[in-house]
Amino acid sequence: MAAPRAATVEFEHVSKHYDARALARGAPGAVNDLSLTVPAGRLCVLVGPSGCGKTTLLKMVNRLIEPTAGRVLIDGVDVATRDVTDLRRGIGYVIQQVGLFPHQTIAENVATVPRLLGWPVARRRERADELLRLVGLEPGTYAARYPAQLSGGERQRVGVARALAADPPIMLMDEPFGAVDPIVRGRLQDELLRLQEQLAKTILFVTHDVDEAIKMGDLVAVFREGGVLAQFGLPAEILARPASPFVASFVGTDRGLKRLSLLRVEDLVLVPAVTAPVGAAGSTDLRAALDDAFPWLLLLDDAARPVAWVAGSDIAPGVPLAAAPSVAALPRFDLRTTLKDALSALLDADVHAGIATGRDGRVLGLVTVGGIAGVLRGQGDGRGDHRGDDRGDGQP
Amino acid sequence: MIRWDWIGGNLDQIASATLDHLVLTVIAVGVGFAISLALGLAAHRRRVLYGPVAGIAGLLYTIPSLALFAILVPFTGLTLLTAEIGLVSYTLLILVRGVVSGLDGVPADALDAAAGMGYDATRRLFRVELPLALPVIVASVRLATVSTIGLVMVTALIGEGGLGQLMLRGFNRGFPTMIYVGVVVSVALAVVLDLLLVGLQRRLMPWTRARSG
Question: A82 contacts in B (CB within 8 Å)?
Answer without folding.
Answer: none
